[in-house]
Design brief:
The chain is built from no helices and seven strands. The protein is mainly β and 80 residues long. The strands form two sheets. The chain has a four-stranded antiparallel β-sheet, with no helix packed on it. A three-stranded antiparallel β-sheet has the order 2-3-4, with no helix packed on it. The radius of gyration is 12 Å and the shape is globular. The protein starts with 9 loop residues before the first strand and ends with a strand.
Length: 80
């Protein structure tokens, strides 16, 4: 789903997710190269500079399938 253009200085994204598998794409921040996804149960923030990933409030990249979890990702470089 495309929600359009947002602010030009975003340094964090947070969302609730209920992944059906441990390999899924969640958010594409630029429409091309910068996105947040989970691969084999590990969340990755591709294209972000020095990302810190939190799952349920703790620094972690581990995500389980079939369970609600809160994900937050922060970065040093602003995204548009």
């Amino acid at each position: 789903m495309d929600i359009g253009t947002g602010p030009s200085s975003v340094k964090s994204a947070s969302f609730w997710v209920y992944p059906e598998t441990t390999t899924e794409y969640f958010i594409n921040l630029t429409g091309t190269t910068d996105y947040i996804w989970v691969n084999g149960g590990a969340i990755t923030a591709t294209g972000l500079t020095s990302p810190t990933i939190y799952v349920d409030g703790a620094v972690s990249s581990a995500l389980a399938a079939n369970k609600w979890q809160h994900v937050a990702v922060t970065t040093d470089t602003a995204e548009n």
